[in-house]
Design brief:
Blueprint: H1 3-15, H2 19-37, H3 45-68, H4 75-98
Helix pairs in contact: 2-3, 2-4, 3-4
């Protein structure tokens, strides 16, 4: 098992969360960290871009990791992970950007 997979298993064990739930938490965490650390609004394009980059980078890492260990890549599972990571951050971005729901 690679370092990446070992880290995921350890994180799942420590938190009691499933892989899918971890993706949701990672996406929201990345978005909120960018908002707080760089003092950006949820309306700004940078937090959602950071989430999408993190989601894509994580899945590229998974694909490379799977190939390097002789496994078969399941792109439908990778797409689901990208979806799980970016869904709620995208909803927050759209609400902040195009509605009055998340405006100050």
């Amino acid at each position: 098992m690679s370092f990446l997979q070992s880290a995921k298993v350890a994180l799942m064990g420590a938190t009691g969360l499933s892989r899918d739930a971890l993706h949701v938490y990672v996406g929201l965490s990345v978005m909120l960290l960018v908002v707080v650390l760089f003092k950006k609004s949820l309306r700004d394009w940078r937090p959602i871009t950071a989430v999408l980059i993190a989601a894509l980078a994580g899945e590229i890492w998974d694909v490379i990791d799977t190939w390097s260990h002789g496994g078969k890549v399941h792109f439908d599972a990778n797409w689901k992970d990208i979806w799980n990571t970016s869904f709620w951050p995208t909803i927050l971005f759209v609400l902040a950007r195009f509605t009055r729901v998340l405006k100050r």
